[in-house]
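[Solved] Which block belongs to which protein?

Original post:
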Amino acid sequence: MNTAKIVLATLLALALGAGAFVWSGIYNPGADNPHWKLTYAVMETTRERAIEQHASTLSVPANLNDPQLILKGAGQYAAMCTSCHLAPGMQDSELRPGLYPQPPDLSKVSVDPREAFWVIKHGLKMSAMPAWGMSHDDATIWSMVAFLQKLPGMTAEQYKEIVAKAPPDEDMGPMDDNSLPTSDGHTHSGHMHADD
């Protein structure tokens, strides 16, 4: 009986302490103030395992190598993704340095198709990754996944060529050279999504 009271008192003290911490406002939520290394490691592991688990039941379409699907995905990527995830030849954007956690540079890393689809569709809490599934159908999201399979290793010139050939899409703004990397490797105005 004594042990139960000690456990209960400890749990109550922890709950009150956590409540006082939350209510105090002393936690700094600024994106320019990184988490402790342990906190970051726990959050990263939790996120990665959750994405793996949720994406594991998805079936990858057989047509991910379809050139037309890849072209559509190139246009979508140029319109919606480069400000955060960059493109070949881009070294930075105006938005990216202020993001925490820092999004992966998808022009340099390969991503699992199922995990990419799940993240694009559902987004990620407490990050700048939106849930594109709220405004885009699965076929469009798979086109972006198809393009992502080709993106790593693509040169800046190859990227510009494929984006220039991308089909027009009613949910994207006009395709112009403003979102393509400049000679200094930066972009100063990304494609605007029609909803933006």
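(Second protein starts here: sequence line, then its structure tokens.)
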Amino acid sequence: MTAPIRRFTSENTHDLDDAALLSAYAFPEDRPWLRMNFVASLDGASTLDGASGGLGDAADQRLLGLLRRPADAVLVAAGTVRHEGYGAMILEDEAVAWRRERGLPDQPVFALVTRSLDLDPGSPLFAEAPVRPLVFTTEDAPHDRRDALAAVADVVTAGRRDVEPARVVEAMHQRGLHKIHGEGGPSLFGDFVAADAVDELCLTLSPTLTAGESGRIAHHERAVATTMRLASVLHSGDELFLRYQRRDERG
């Protein structure tokens, strides 16, 4: 039987407000969940001029803020934090009020992944953090850096030479952090895909062709196929917001 191909049409043409978007992207309530959020160009680039921010626009940034809002934790690799210029993870007042109404802590936990612990403990990332961050690292990480960061963050060993996704997820669940929103980068995403740990991908498809040498949104030394299903498609002008979830169920 020939696979059907259909036109994409929308029955609802009105603009979606924040409440509608939060409902559309709600975490499942009956299980732990880890989703990743990325932006990519039409030709598969994950960055423009070295940063993913060059591919997104105001709509993409709006959705990113809403995706963070219900999360227990925001998970990011240290390299992405440096390249994208992250500061402390602080939600706006409106988001804080929304979380309070639902019995959530004011702010999600900022969780960072780094083998080298190449992070400045005096940076705003830690000094201005409203919640003590989590830092996942390895047994082989430099002990002097571990001691310095331990003064401003909870440093957790999650592997010997590499940070193991399963141990990261387990440690977060033990701390009551069950709804995890990840923002990259590609190596972190690839590691979690290879470990079969990703439940959802929220992908902004930028209406841009870039060429260049930018990598994909995920890379790993081995290929692993995780079958996903299309959960929703939204758009802002020519920009698409795709949401994919795992097709199979895992306990």
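Accepted answer:
You had them paired correctly. Confirming on the second one: The chain has eight helices and nine strands.
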